[in-house]
Amino acid sequence: MSLFYIESAKIGLFILFAFVLAFIITFFAYIISPAAPDAEKVSTYECGFDPYEDARNVFDVRFYLVAILFLIFDLEAVFLFPWCVSVSVLNAEGYWGMMDFIFELLIGYIYALEVGALEWE
User: Cα dist. 71→27, 36, 43, 76, 117 in Å?
Assistant: First the structure.
């Protein structure tokens, strides 16, 4: 047999082992876990929402908007920190490219302020 079939058999064996192990773990977790919910499990969450309400309740979209804006500006920090470390060895193209990036994020932040995305009423 060629080396390809031997390696494929090893990979297939690992995949089979993973499925069997996952089934065994799930089975024993289902058997061992308690089925009766306690008072802590059915109490309200820390945010104040009841856990067993209708799924079609109105949920404020501002939570998602703030989370998305946080991710955008957090991503800016991920790009900004390496640039700050290596700014002394960059050429003019790297410097002005980062200035363009910061300028575009500043425009986005000003737009978010203008449309009232950060106001909480």
Answer: 38, 39, 30, 9, 14
